[in-house]
Amino acid sequence: MHPGDDFGAEGTGVLLAMSAAEADRVLEDLLEANMLMQYTRDRYRFHDLLGLYARRLLADDAEGEPARSRLCTWYADAVTAAMEWVYPQLVRLDTHAERDTFFATEADALAWLDVELPALLAIVRHAAGSADPALAWRITDQLRGYFLIHRQVDGWLAAAEAGLDAADRASDDVARTAMLISRGQALSSVGRDEEALSDCLAGEQLAVATGWTTAAAYLSHHIGWLYLEQGKLTDAEEWLHRALELTEDDQLGHVRAVALNGLGVMRLCQGELRDAVELLNAALEINEATGRETSALANRGNLASALRQLGAEARASALLTEVLAAYRNRSNLRGEMSTLDELSQLHLQRGNAAAALEVARRAHDMAIAVHDRKATAQTAATAAQAYLALGDATAAAQWFEHCITIAHNAYPFVEARALVGFAAARLSAGDSASASCTAEQAVAIAGFCGFRLLERRALAALHASRR
């Protein structure tokens, strides 16, 4: 009856309509009778044959369906309460007013999600094809917050598609909007950005039609971010400003903060560093004022990049040290990875190429581990720069080529940055003709997209190759 392969006392208590303590005693009795296996300290599972026999008996049990319904409802409530701890600012369909009745701390909530994710995904799959499909989109909507933190974990895209199918069958446009947000971000997390953009544009139209203004603003931000990734800065700016307009009455809202952060990152790409600092500080002030520490960490990391490029190395270093410790404390691999990449660039700027290479290689390994193609390309470019600074033009060229292969026609800022470095590596190896050709490509991409600071660096590389 339980949707997962293993189960604990809380879920068992819900199924049997008893307290967790009473259920724990039942489980211990069954374990002593050799009718269960203890999977981990607090998790149990049936022996295979005994599980099959129990499922056959369940077909004739009149209490079976009410118990299953009770358990699924409990899971929906618990995952909503967990998200109040783990990602309370998440734009979603439902919130929970009594998170403390389920979990005492954020760590407890996150640990529960780690353990119960297979059961939650199983409920989504079952509910999507049932007569009452709402559980499919309700649970998937909450799990989006978990997947945004742990994007390397499998199951997001399949759950979002199941939830969207359920919402389509129910003709529920608000649920459709939530599932388009989820599927769009799931697609984006695996590099399928065009499909992600299509989902987000469709979701934004539905959000406007249903009057869900917060979702419309959030989707406007995400559309802007996707255009930014593609190097379409005019479109990105338009959509990010639309998100700000829609949040004018919510000056301390999460969506306003992420839109300001997005604009700050765009100014970084444009080389307008002081404007970037101002926008990122504005986002940070909102998140610090409202206690959104996870979002504030992202702001501080981006702010450190702007300060580094402005030459404020000590301030950038202090921020990165603080952010890195916080991400490690939260076991946030993506946050740690992006911080290490920026730290490597700071080491390079300070002339410590050996430290830069060591940190960049660590960041690159993490990018591969979490299946992040953009970060894989970006960290490869940083490692290549470190090799070049160490005088190893051959290794640098190999790493730059690795980056360009991934970033080509997908991540223009990363591609142009790598082309600038690749031109320098070729020039260092004595191939001025190839260096000039590579630098011309960088100039073309950076100039077309409006990456002004990068364009100046590309032009400098081009001039150096023609001396």
UniProtKB/TrEMBL annotation:
TPR repeats: 217-250, 257-290
PROSITE patterns per UniProt: TPR (PS50005)
Keyword DNA repair on entry: no
Gene3D superfamilies: Tetratricopeptide repeat domain
SMART domains in alphabetical order: TPR (SM00028)
Pfam families to which the protein is assigned, alphabetical: TPR_12, TPR_8
Keywords noted in UniProt: TPR repeat
Protein name: Tetratricopeptide repeat protein
